């Protein structure tokens, strides 16, 4: 009852997602062994970049784990994983400056970031409710429940789609500022691109999987209504 031809396409997209995860981890490890010519740590680069943009009041905090780096827009804090915080590598600087890119977006009221922040509470609710509505709809063959589940699931998909320009823009800002501030040389840009592009690919894969799942549910819903 749950099988659909679209499942094959989703499985391919899931394979892309797994490959993207390996890619980002592999590129991070590769360039974690390549020291940046500036000799800066991730924390130092992030601090200098924040200060250069007038964000003196945005603190930087180390957090446990690997690739757990993020910008907290609620508390306005850049949090860097311990290897990035203390590392002197191309990988460390790339990830640190990417997170600062989000802080700069916040300062400049970047439209997609604002929209994503406003959508986040609804997305949390939708992500929790949608699976139960969809499963219930399929089990009891209740198209109204499936339709409602699709509506909630669409919110979660929209959030992932909106995340794409946010992430790409943060990386673009980071790359340009790292060169202009002298954190890396033009020759080191290749490594920065590989690290950040691989990370961006994981968001693309996640959004693609969600979009395909949404399309599958819509096709099932439409087919059920036709019958």
UniProtKB/TrEMBL annotation:
The keyword Transmembrane helix applies. The keyword Membrane applies. Keywords: Membrane, Transmembrane, Transmembrane helix. The chain crosses the membrane at residues 6-22, 122-140, 146-168, 200-220. InterPro entries: Zn_peptidase_2. This is Zinc metallopeptidase.
């Amino acid at each position: 009852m749950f099988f659909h031809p679209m499942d094959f396409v989703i499985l391919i997209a899931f394979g892309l997602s797994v490959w993207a995860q390996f890619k980002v981890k592999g590129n991070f490890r590769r360039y974690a062994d390549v020291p940046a010519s500036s000799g800066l740590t991730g924390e130092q680069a992030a601090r200098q970049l924040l200060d250069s943009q007038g964000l003196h009041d945005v603190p930087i905090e180390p957090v446990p784990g690997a690739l757990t780096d993020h910008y907290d827009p609620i508390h306005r804090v850049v949090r860097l994983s311990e290897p990035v915080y203390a590392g002197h590598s191309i990988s460390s600087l790339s990830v640190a400056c990417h997170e600062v890119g989000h802080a700069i977006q916040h300062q400049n009221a970047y439209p997609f970031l604002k929209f994503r922040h406003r959508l986040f509470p609804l997305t949390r609710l939708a992500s929790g409710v949608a699976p139960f509505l969809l499963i219930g709809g399929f089990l009891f063959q209740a198209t109204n429940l499936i339709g409602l589940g699709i509506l909630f699931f669409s919110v979660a998909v929209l959030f992932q789609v909106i995340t794409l320009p946010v992430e790409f823009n943060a990386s673009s800002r980071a790359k340009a500022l790292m060169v202009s501030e002298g954190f890396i040389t033009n020759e080191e840009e290749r490594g920065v691109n590989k690290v950040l592009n691989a990370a961006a690919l994981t968001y693309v894969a996640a959004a693609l999987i969600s979009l395909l799942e949404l399309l599958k549910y819509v096709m099932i819903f439409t087919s059920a209504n036709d019958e």
